Amino acid sequence: MGRPENPLPTGARNTAVGKLAHWLRTQRHAAGLTYSVMAQQAGCHATTLQRAAKGTGVPPLRVVEAYARACGANLEDARRLWRAARYEASTRRHGTPEPTRIDLIREMAELVPAMIDIYHRTGATLREFEQRAGAHSQLPHSTIHRILRRQVIPTRHQFGLWLDACGITGTQRMAWVHAWGRAQEALLPKGRPDPKAWNEVTFIPSTPPPSHHRLPLAEARAS
User: Fold this and answer.
1) Contact between residue 112 and residue 153 where contact means Cβ atoms under 8 Å apart
2) How far is residue 200 from each of residues 5, 19, 39, 48, 127, measured CA to CA in Å?
3) CATH number for the segment(s) 12-94
4) Where are the domains of the chain?
5) Closest by Cα among 25, 22, 186, 220 to 107
6) For the whole prediction, is pTM greater than 0.85?
7) Which residues cross the membrane (predicted)?
8) What are the φ and ψ backbone dihedral angles of 219, each rounded to 5 degrees?
């Protein structure tokens, strides 16, 4: 097993980043592997793998996956823990407040922060998120960036693509569609809803990303 690793930072196990690091270390110990042996199997340098389990930052997803594969660990568990760590780091960095519950959203000022929240939960970069929305879509990374900075309100079509990129489907998607309808109604004169605000979102062909990129229902704030 080589020499023992340094202990995780104080209080790390109470954070998502620390839980990811602890899980990685547990998988390595269970497999009885040294980092040098893992490096040969994972195609990563031993120090890269060791750094991923330090608990001081969020390692790249590809490194976490390589670590898990080398240990014969569950990749879905690795991805779930990584998404949680990435989300935690993103919200702390941006000082993001707790978003309004989907069923309580009544205006765009509440809907857009909720959209930003589920974006961060995917763990995707701007380019990756753009790819999930579909090639040559109306949701380029520049628009994604402006939405994240709250500089623009997304169009109905962009909102539907955003849900697709986050893997929001089924009844969960309908909760978001209803939230959009309420927020859209608040923007219109005399509160008259625009019928297209419902139809264009509801019937956009949903092409969710691969299952390992899809946001688990339990992780999205639809309730």
Assistant:
1) yes
2) 54, 41, 49, 46, 25
3) 1.10.260.40
4) 12-94, 102-219
5) 186
6) no
7) none
8) -90, -15
